[in-house]
Design brief:
With 71 residues, the protein is α+β, with helices and mostly antiparallel strands. It has one domain. It has 3 helices and 2 strands, in the order βααβα. The longest helix is centred in the middle third of the chain and has 14 residues. The protein starts with 6 loop residues before the first strand and ends in a 6-residue tail after the last helix.
Length: 71
């Protein structure tokens, strides 16, 4: 793929459901994997109805606060 072509990377929604340190690690893993190009962060299948809102808030906090894009 060309370097400047945007990609869309998915986080497993079960990680969002579980929350905790693994959610944080895997979110950063996805962000780092695409640090060299434009990237659209998203979930593989959306937010499940039983996902705690605090987990969603933490995910958004991590993504918005991440400053590693080097494009």
């Amino acid at each position: 793929m060309p370097d400047k072509l945007p990609v869309q990377g998915n986080l497993d929604p079960l990680l969002l459901l579980a929350g905790g340190p693994e959610l944080e690690r895997q979110t950063l893993r996805v962000l780092e994997a695409f640090a060299e190009r434009p990237h659209i962060f998203n979930l593989g299948h959306g937010i499940g109805q039983h996902t705690p809102i605090t987990h969603v808030e933490r995910l958004v906090e991590i993504v918005r606060g991440w400053n590693g894009w080097r494009g």
